[in-house]
Amino acid sequence: MKARLKWVDGVCFLGESGSGHAVVMDGAPEGGGRNLGPRPMELLLLGTAGCTSYDVITILKKSRQQVSDCWVEIEAERAEEEPKVFTRIHFHFVVSGRDLKADAVERAIRLSAEKYCSASIMLGKTADISHDFELRDA
């Protein structure tokens, strides 16, 4: 896997993934940025949510669950001192569908957290990671 990051101006950077997709990262105005894009640590959280959501949806579909929607709300805390690593991350999954089984959703989240999601397993080396979920009928 490869990526490229180019400095644009101030604390603004343009990242390009190996698959050719671009994203602008910028800092807050009080830090010299112009707020043109997400912060790098925000992208790290979003990428982790994407990684675990991919797993959860894939596992649920293989389990023949009728999922129609899924999103994850993430709350994180960072260390007070440098390096300001994540110390706590909570993922709250909201899964919608027909006749969803809570045990199947719980299993999918657990498998992602313990076996498949490289990003959250890596972040778990410095952060206490927790998960919960709610089911909604579609």
UniProtKB/TrEMBL annotation:
<dbReference type="InterPro" id="IPR003718">
    <property type="entry name" value="OsmC/Ohr_fam"/>
</dbReference>
<dbReference type="InterPro" id="IPR015946">
    <property type="entry name" value="KH_dom-like_a/b"/>
</dbReference>
<protein>
    <submittedName>
        <fullName>OsmC family protein</fullName>
    </submittedName>
</protein>
<dbReference type="Pfam" id="PF02566">
    <property type="entry name" value="OsmC"/>
</dbReference>
<dbReference type="InterPro" id="IPR036102">
    <property type="entry name" value="OsmC/Ohrsf"/>
</dbReference>
